[in-house]
Amino acid sequence: MEYLFLGFLTSISLILAIGAQNIFVIEQGLKKQHIFLVCLICSISDFILIFLGIFLFHYFIQYFNSTIELIFNILLILFLLHFIYSKIKNYNSSVIFNSEKKNISKISILFKTIGFTYLNPHVYSDTVFFLGNFSKNFLNNEKILFGIGASIASFLFFFSLGYLSKFLSQYAENQKVWKVINIFIITFMSVLIFYILLEII
User: Fold this and answer.
1) Consecutive 10-residue runs of the chain (201 residues): their mean pLDDT?
2) Which of 60, 112, 134, 154 is the most core-located residue (most Cβ within 10 A)?
3) Which domain holds residue 135?
4) How far is it, in rounded angstroms, from Cα 110 to Cα 37?
5) Secondary structure of residue 174 in the 3-state scheme
6) What DSSP designation does 169 have?
7) pTM of this prediction?
8) Quick one: the chain helix, strand, coil %, rounded to 5?
9) Which residues cross the membrane (predicted)?
10) Over 30-90, what HEC string results?
11) Number of domains in the chain
């Protein structure tokens, strides 16, 4: 059980760091847009990457070189630029919360969630490489318990984040409040792009 608890604590300490994916989950919660689907994709993705890292760390470390990381960073920048552009373009549009969920298709949310998850190189450094490296000397049964603990932390975090945001959405059902939220999102994503550019340079 100690490895289950260790996996939980290690994972939650990594995932608590604010990032583009977390901001996206919060936004979908505030808008009440397919929250369960978003949280489920994020959680299952972490589950897959965590166990890939734990059991295949030695294999991946040979191939995840600086060139591949650079490609992921460039793709993430392009993805974030498109996201910021759409935010700025629709900045003055009215947000109708009662119909928001109906207007956004599941396919659109699916691809956005996948983009924020798999185009982010930090999701690989946290799950595949950090957790994989951390647990590389564990026995197989210890690795399984460690992975389960880490995955439980991920599921609890994303679903808590999404549904807590949904609960707080009652305070965001105001056009002025939502514009402030959008300014924060645009600013945060812009700073994130700048940070990624610094890493590339």
Assistant:
1) 89 77 89 93 95 83 69 84 83 55 77 91 80 86 94 95 87 72 85 83 71
2) 154
3) 2-200
4) 8
5) coil
6) G
7) 0.77
8) 85, 0, 15
9) 6-26, 35-61, 67-86, 107-124, 144-165, 177-198
10) HHCCCHHHHHHHHHHHHHHHHHHHHHHHHHHCCCCCHHHHHHHHHHHHHHHHHHHHHHHHC
11) 1
